[in-house]
Amino acid sequence: MPIVTMTVNGRPVSADVDPRTLLVQFLRENLMLTGTHVGCDTSQCGACTVHLDGHAVKACTVLALQAEGGAVVTIEGLGAPGLLHPMQEAFREHHGLQCGFCTPGMIMAAIDIVNRHGNELAEHTVREELEGNICRCTGYHNIVRAITEGARAMAAPVLNRAAE
Amino acid sequence: MTVTRIGEAVRRKEDHRFITGKGQYTDDIFRPRQTHAYFLRSPHAHARIRRLDTAEAAAMPGVVGILTGKDLAEDKIGDLICGWMIHDIHGQPMKMGSHPALAKEKVRYVGDHVAVVIAERLDQARDAAEAIEVDYEVLPAVADLATATDATAALVHDEIAGNLAFEWHLGHKAMTDHAFERAHHVTRLDIVNNRLVPNPMEPRAAIGEYDSGNDSFTLWTTSQNPHVARLVLSAFVGIAPEHKLRVIAPDVGGGFGSKIFIYAEETVCAWASKRVGRPVKWTSDRSEAFLSDAHGRDHITTAELALDERGKITALRVKTRANMGAYLSTFASSIPTYLYATLLSGQYDIPAIHAAVEAVYTTTAPVDAYRGAGRPEATFVVERLAEAAAREIGMDPADFRKKNFIRKFPHQTPVIMTYDIGNYRASLDKAMEIADVKGFNRRRRQSAREGKLRGLGYSCYIEACGIAPSQAVGSLGAGVGLWESAEVRVNPTGNVEVLTGSHSHGQGHETTFAQLVSDRLGIPIEQVTVVHGDTDKVQFGMGTYGSRSGAVGMSAIVKALDKVEAKAKKIASHLLEAAEADIEFKDGKFSVAGTDRSIDFASVALNAYVAHKFPTSEIEPGLKEGAFYDPVNFTFPAGTHICELEIDPATGRTTICNWTAVDDFGVVINPMIVEGQVHGGIAQGVGQALLEGAAYDRDGQLVTGSFMDYAMPRADDLPSFKMGFTETKCPSNPLGIKGCGEAGAIAAPAAVMNAITDALGTEAVPMPATPQTVWKIARTRAAPRAAE
Amino acid sequence: MALELTGSYELPVPREAVWEALNDPEMLKRCIPGCEELEKTSDNGFRASAVAKIGPVKARFKGSVELTDLDPPAGYRIAGQGDGGIAGFAKGGAVVKLEPSEAGTTLHYSVDAQIGGKLAQLGQRLVAGTAKKLADQFFEAFAKAVTEKAAA
């Protein structure tokens, strides 16, 4: 089996994997990073969203081998010990989660939205950008609020140090 | 450290683990030596298994075992059951088709379980399943509900004639028919309540583990009610005696009803773990979830409303055919009966009601409770009729409702329910104000100038929650009581563990329940932990569904807290050397009335355990109390939702412009959480109205079997919601709570469809009102209302 | 779910040559996309296996094919069923009619098929397109093969 090597949440990792191993399987089953979830099998729900080299990807649609040499950040890699990432904090503050299953993917997608669209997000921008993430619990109302507020908080220099 | 009060929007205690990726869902659990199960499912809707050959597959790499219905029978594992017995119009028990966890002679829907392959790795199990040879004798599918009882239809269960599980009715037929004969006006609607797939974001999963040393089983499963799962798996399916089966439902990623039921997969994982002598894990993929999770709704209804000359409702007559799917799922029979027909009076004073229900087998996935379970179907019937009737007699739909609202409480409806309290006019008025109904015509003209059709629709829903006194549901056929249990354990240092039989899978119990304890005992919410979802920790409980955890689950906690307080007062009286009758408890302090002598809660707790200062012959050491609470009535949350939307006739696309929800949930413990529950419910209701519809083709193949073909509501399908509350305190439980979990899903479909039919100027718009459907209708409408 | 597909092809060879090719297992095997096996089991029956990919679902179908309504050289009906294991199943038939034409022969076909299981669940939106593509691939290969054979 081929060996794959990458950085996950800042730490170098390396493993023998079956070539058909998906990135999400690699994260969950090899590294036991179970914060990244699998909600569908057709790349629709976004529960498995992680960052690969600074961009949001659906880890169910990327082979572990495609991430060779890359830098992956998962929900477990956000924030610093004792300090939440502003987007995590915003989801909590604005009740942007209920069952929590889609939440890691939502938060990773949200940070990516901010990275691409800046810290002042219009509601319709957030709603359109969330097209690839499904939540069945919240009706999105509070997720949208959390992301717009989290985006603003990410602009604050002090808190930003806790970011990835 | 401060006390959190009832009514505060305190942030959720459980969130930290979810936002940091530390939640522990069933699939996140890895057991030593675990194996993986893959279910071979029927590709046919209906077939007889002529031959099942697993020999080649069993020899494939990594395969640990392959089990079939034969093995199940060998071990005398019983069928899955339906736990609510309905007696039909002739007094006969409903006809329950045999429901084995793995098929015996026949398969009855696409996705039905043929065999399970257990292997070292999931891909090995899947590869081996490929090698199983099944020789099917394909039988005709029974995929169409409307024709499923025809004499020409194949029989889903050979022994059940006409595919009819039962015919049932409720209400007074003669009185109702009489009222219709005398009616000044009759409004009639043909309604299809579309079939839905619940789709919680976490797919179902299970891990069975057998401990040969103790001859006991542990089952981790995605359940809304682990104790009921254990009871059924023990008493009926026969996996193990109750005390030898531990069921754990860890973090569960949404349920919406679909995780109430006891399914084949968890049954097989538990059973098979003993067979193969290793833990057996199964996690559904989304494709399997579409096929095998119990679906929701799926009614065909004809409904008529009789009016007198002044627009007063005199009677309601309903005929409903409900799809049960291939087997009667755990609570399936109660949904189109006692959870549906009993709510047909809505918020209205209706003297006569009659509902006739046929429950029909088809070769489709089983249909059972999905958020609201029967009550959305009832609300849809009543509220579509109300809107259509008002339009037909030329009355404003809001005025029509006001005229017919129930005003005096308690109110006995003709369909069992006694509504304890409500103020329907108050929620309607408040909703109309928030929605700026006065300005609607101006907005409609503006839309018309832009070539758009604008519509406004009301939904004045009522639901019955918490479920009812156990005696009452028992007399209606329920196989279980519907009380709830709680245990409050005060530790020597004064912090508290609350054990509850409710189960949280998104509802925020860890916060709300802790909030109640904080308020009541005057200790910081951080010092309260809520324990649930493990049959080894919590003695028994009925779980979470039917918006019952607040009204019933928290009432049980209140009862236990009463006992804790009573005992603590006794102890405090010894510590303060005062008469027990003089001890007052307030803000976390026990004090002697009329003095400044007091002692705080934590000190009493410590003393309870050291037991140095009170006679243990009179007072037992320790501070731990349990309680069972049985509700005295259903609770009746009600309210008004108003949907305002705009249709682009060129594309058929419907855009919801404004959503107003004013709900009366009685006392609200945490408004942030309650609003969140309503938001989610609305989204599911809007999904039903505009997007979602499970479709089987004539061969019984599910053609909406993935998120590519089954349209889930996404962020850009929905607006932000405008929320309001009114409050009539529920007299039936100590906290005055009514329940909020299902309201949105119950109210929303009727509000959307009333708005769409308003915009299009025709009542004949089917759900889901997809752009294609709306576009076709918009094209044929010569003069829609918006252009008037 | 049901699938219907009709079409016609012009083949620059005489009708008899087309007929002969249509009854030649080796020829069919070469032309059927993904065909791995086509063994004659009786006068008009074959055992077949083929690999097909429809959208996200790839499977090896094992099954049988039978020729009926033989009307040489004007056409026949070819009917079959294949079991794709956990991917589902496909069954159906095609009526093939051969008419002499100026160029040689016009082949008309009309397919009526059903698919089920995962194929229908995940692949159904792609089935019609895939079926058309497979038919095109087959006839393209078949036209080439019969032309080459006639020229040889």
Your description of this structure?
Chain A is built from six helices and five strands. With 164 residues, chain A is an alpha+beta fold. Chain A has a five-stranded mixed beta sheet with strand order 2-1-5-3-4, covered by helices on one side. Chain A is globular. Chain B starts with 14 loop residues before the first helix and ends in an 8-residue tail after the last helix. Chain B has a seven-stranded mixed beta sheet with strand order 3-5-1-12-9-10-11, with helices on both faces. Chain B has three domains: 18-25 and 35-139 and 204-283, Aldehyde Oxidoreductase, domain 3; 299-467 and 633-787, 2-Layer Sandwich (Aldehyde Oxidoreductase, domain 4), CATH 3.30.365; 483-629, Aldehyde oxidase/xanthine dehydrogenase, molybdopterin binding domain (Aldehyde Oxidoreductase, domain 4, 2-Layer Sandwich), CATH 3.30.365.10. Chain C has a single domain (2-151), classed as 2-Layer Sandwich (Alpha-D-Glucose-1,6-Bisphosphate, Chain A, domain 4). Chain C starts with a strand and ends with a helix. At the A-B interface, helix 2, helix 3, helix 4 and helix 5 of A face helix 1 and helix 17 of B.
Architecture blueprint of SSEs:
The complex is a heterotrimer of chains A (164), B (788) and C (152).
Chain A: E1 3-8, E2 11-16, H1 23-30, E3 49-52, E4 55-58, E5 71-73, H2 86-93, H3 103-117, H4 123-129, H5 141-155, H6 157-160
Parallel strand pairs in A: 1-5
Antiparallel strand pairs in A: 1-2, 3-4, 3-5
Helix pairs in contact in A: 2-5, 3-5
Chain B: H1 15-19, E1 35-41, E2 47-53, H2 55-58, E3 63-68, H3 69-74, E4 106-107, E5 113-119, H4 122-130, E6 133-138, E7 164-171, H5 173-181, E8 185-193, E9 205-211, E10 216-221, H6 226-236, E11 245-248, H7 264-276, E12 280-283, H8 286-292, E13 299-307, E14 313-325, E15 352-361, H9 375-392, H10 397-404, E16 411-412, E17 418-419, H11 424-434, H12 440-449, E18 453-462, H13 470-475, E19 484-490, E20 496-500, H14 509-521, E21 528-531, H15 549-575, E22 583-586, E23 589-592, E24 598-600, H16 601-610, E25 624-629, E26 638-648, E27 653-664, H17 671-691, E28 722-726, H18 743-760, H19 771-780
Parallel strand pairs in B: 1-12, 10-11, 14-15, 20-21, 27-28
Antiparallel strand pairs in B: 1-5, 2-4, 2-6, 3-5, 7-15, 8-13, 9-10, 9-12, 13-14, 16-17, 18-26, 19-20, 19-25, 22-23, 23-24, 26-27
Chain C: E1 2-11, H1 15-22, H2 25-31, E2 35-40, E3 45-54, E4 57-71, E5 75-83, E6 89-100, E7 105-116, H3 118-151
Antiparallel strand pairs in C: 1-7, 2-3, 3-4, 4-5, 5-6, 6-7
